[in-house]
Write a structure and sequence with these properties.
The chain is of the alpha/beta class and 714 residues long. The chain has 17 helices and 18 strands. The strands form 3 sheets. Strands 1, 2, 3, 4, 5, 6, 7, 8, 9 and 10 form a 10-stranded antiparallel beta sheet that branches. It has a 6-stranded parallel beta sheet with strand order 15-12-11-16-17-18, with helices on both faces. It has a two-stranded antiparallel ribbon with strand order 13-14. The structure holds CIS-heme D hydroxychlorin gamma-spirolactone (HDD).
């Protein structure tokens, strides 16, 4: 196999321009002499219709927007490569998975689901995690999410789900939020969504960074080997930086302070050379184990617990190049779960089956032409030859008179490939059944894995789920919807439902008598085909489901940002010690000062401010350091500083202070709550000591100081 790592090879087919040292021209290549004035009859006269330069420019501008994605409109992308570390030729004939060290270029697009293109990154939402592999055998798209299950079991419910979660149609409110009546009305009537709801109400839905998210293929797929044998497989992306989130109060504040937080984070990390990296793992399930489990492998509301089938790592993905142009690449990229290469195939998961129709259809309306595969970001590196012709904006200039098959005039070309020559052939699955509109009874248990997820969370994570549900349902105006949700939650965990009920000032209904358990509204009871069941999962708890005890997390502060609050008189040695130590760990210390420009140091030097207190905010950093030497009275009276510290404390971040700066903490509003043994408050009377800096870094490496949280809320 040829190694395609060199992205330039892919770029050869791509028309790039940056205009440097070039004449300005029209789209037809005519050099422009004056781009500032339209053609007029006299300098105060009317504009002339013959001004082809003006008309071309304005026409292009008028058409600059294309329809945004109906879901996943808000996104951010990057280029990189996938490298095989543990080849699996015995399982798949896919060339890009067969050889150790083989690299394949990729483009990844991360996204939120519900919000419009201009919405905030920090909405409580599922994140899309879509990877396009430019393999030598054609394009392979792994179009997944950061949550391994989905809300619904059948694609026919997808438009309903999306209509319910999007802004309500009469007033287009709320933007990028599930906390409203139509979403919870739908969910309260769809017990199959309960597992996904547990994930969506957990901190998975408010990641710290796209770089700190797991990714999942969600459905069970098939790998097909040279002998044509199939193996079921689930795909997992495991981030090198661990799986981390912000807290909900913080997410809401970030949405105001910097709605581009995740976009910027991804962009900056790549610019700084902190290339985001994931391992690709698979759960391998032999064909003969199809019916071995107490859930159906075809049911997309179920995971295969890692306790039953461990994840085998087969490769790694590194994102190392930002796009040159957001629209041309991140916006125009067109993913499709049906873009597969020989060696990868589908299962009959009814959600996946519907997706296989939807994605081409959406590209036709969004990108406007069946030629969307010719847009540079979508182009295959494997040569494309077929008899598809013409259509809007066709780029290819097909030569010759033959555009049909079979033909003799073109020598039979392009010719079909035998399987041994890499021709795609679908897995030879036997299908022999009645035509029915039914759902398998093996899909009927909607609660056991929701409970497995809840049981697997630490007490911190459980309390976050309770608070998320109180928030979301608290925004629902219709009492009956809230009560139906409490009924469904009680099927997952009685205590969870009771905790949520306290926040809503309601009580948990005796659910078995209410129509909610039937998964249909009282008006539509006759459409019910199977009663949902509530079984017990064979696995009671799984560490991999908790973000806090996730076994793939290892302590690191790489790529984290620390705010160093400085005013005149600050100890230069302290600031530089901290900055240097952070840089050594691939993290960054950024100076936040009362104004931009620079602050004067105790040794008559100057340190440049990266932010002013007005433009910075604690929620944009991972930790705060207050170095010694400054005039503390001034800082202690500045509300912005106190709010900075208070937020950092409230969001369980590490706060460090040395020398006399330690006394600033007693002026902060949280001082009364602060416990003496809080492992995230790092103080040292000795300014800038190495132990102090190391203690600060060690505390940060665990992401957040969750031990603090029980003191914060009731
Ligand atoms: Fe979808 C986009 C992931 C179910 C129909 N989907 C889209 C994207 C991701 C997913 C990551 C954004 C790709 C990008 O960045 O351009 N979708 C999923 C997952 C699902 C899922 C993991 C369940 C397991 N989707 C799903 C169903 C349908 C769709 C059931 C329709 C029947 N999805 C679409 C779409 C989108 C899309 C309307 C919108 C824009 C696009 O495709 O290109 O076709």
């Amino acid at each position: 196999m040829k190694n395609f790592q060199d992205e330039k090879q892919r770029d050869l087919s791509v028309n790039k321009s940056d205009g440097t040292n070039k004449f300005m021209t029209t789209d037809q290549g005519v050099r422009i002499n004056d781009d500032n004035n339209s053609l007029k009859s006299g300098d105060r006269g009317p504009s002339l219709l013959e001004d082809f330069i003006l008309r071309e420019k304005i026409t292009h501008f008028d058409h600059e927007r294309i329809p945004e994605r109906i879901v996943h409109a808000r996104g951010s992308g990057a280029h990189g490569f996938f490298e095989v570390t543990n080849p699996i030729p015995e399982l798949t004939k896919a060339g890009f998975l067969k050889e150790a060290g083989l690299k394949t270029p990729v483009f990844v697009r991360f996204s939120t689901v519900a919000g419009f293109r201009g919405s905030t990154d920090l909405a409580r939402d599922v994140r899309g995690f879509a990877v396009k592999f430019y393999t030598q055998e054609g394009i392979y798209d792994l179009v997944g999410n950061n949550i391994p299950v989905f809300f619904i079991q059948d694609a026919s419910k997808f438009p309903d789900l999306v209509h319910a979660v999007k802004p309500e149609p009469h007033n287009e409110i709320p933007q990028a939020a599930s906390a409203h009546d139509t979403f919870w009305d739908f969910i309260s009537l769809m017990p199959e969504s309960m597992h996904m709801i547990m994930w969506a109400m957990s901190d998975r839905a408010i990641p710290r960074s796209y770089r700190m998210m797991e990714g999942f293929g969600v459905h069970t797929f098939r790998l097909i080997n040279e002998a044509g044998e199939s193996t079921f497989v689930k795909f997992h992306w495991k981030p090198k930086l661990g799986t981390h989130a912000v807290v909900w109060d913080e997410a809401q504040k970030i949405s105001g302070k910097n709605p581009d937080f995740h976009r910027e984070d991804l962009w900056e990390a790549i610019e700084m050379g902190n290339f985001p990296e994931w391992e690709l793992g698979i759960q391998i399930i032999p064909e003969e184990d199809e019916h071995k489990y107490d859930f159906d492998l075809l049911d997309p509301t179920k995971i295969v617990p890692e306790e039953l089938v461990p994840v085998t790592i087969i490769g790694r993905m590194v994102l190392n190049r930002n796009p040159d142009n957001f629209f041309a690449e991140t916006e125009q990229i067109a993913f499709h779960p049906g873009h597969v290469v020989p060696g990868i195939d589908f299962t009959n998961d009814p959600l996946l089956q519907g997706r296989l129709f939807s994605y081409t259809d959406t590209q036709l309306s969004r990108l406007g032409s069946p030629n969307f595969h010719e847009i540079p970001i979508n182009r295959s590196v494997a040569p494309v030859h077929n008899n598809q012709r013409d259509g809007h904006m066709r780029q290819e200039i097909n030569k010759g008179r033959v555009s049909y098959h079979p033909n003799s005039l073109g020598g039979g070309c392009p010719f079909q490939a035998k399987i041994s020559e890499g021709g795609f052939s679908s897995f030879n699955e036997r299908v022999d059944a009645h035509k029915v509109r039914e759902r398998s009874t093996s899909f009927a248990d909607h609660f056991s894995q929701a409970r497995l997820f809840f049981n697997s969370q630490t007490s911190t994570e459980k309390s976050h789920i309770v608070r998320a549900l109180r928030f979301e349902l608290g925004k629902v105006e219709t009492t009956a919807i809230r009560v139906r949700m409490l009924g469904l939650l009680s099927q997952v965990d009685r205590q969870l439902a009771e905790q949520v009920a306290i926040g809503l000032g309601a009580s948990v209904p005796s659910t078995l008598e209410t129509p909610i358990n039937k998964g249909v509204s009282p008006e539509n009871e006759e459409t019910l085909k199977h009663e949902p069941t509530n079984a017990e999962s064979s696995v009671n708890a799984s560490d991999a489901l908790s973000m806090i005890i996730n076994p793939t997390n290892s302590p690191t502060i790489a790529s984290r940002k620390v705010a160093i609050i400085c005013t005149d008189g600050v100890s230069e040695a302290s600031v530089m010690n901290m900055k240097n130590a952070l840089t050594k760990e691939d993290a960054k210390g950024l100076v936040v000062a009362p104004h931009l420009g620079s602050v004067l140091t105790d040794s008559d030097g100057a340190i440049a401010a990266d932010f002013s207190l007005l433009t910075a905010s604690s929620v944009l950093f991972d930790a705060v350091y207050i170095p010694h030497g400054m005039s503390l009275n001034e800082l202690a009276e500045d509300d912005t500083v106190l709010e900075f510290l208070n937020d950092a404390y409230k969001h369980c971040k590490v706060i460090g202070a040395d020398g006399e700066a330690t006394s600033l903490l007693s002026a902060a509003p949280f001082a009364l709550k602060m416990s003496n043994d809080d492992p995230g408050i790092i103080l040292s009377s000795d300014s800038g000591s190495e132990t102090f800096v190391q203690d600060f870094i060690n505390a940060m490496a665990n992401h957040r100081v969750w031990e603090r949280e029980p003191n914060l809320y009731n």
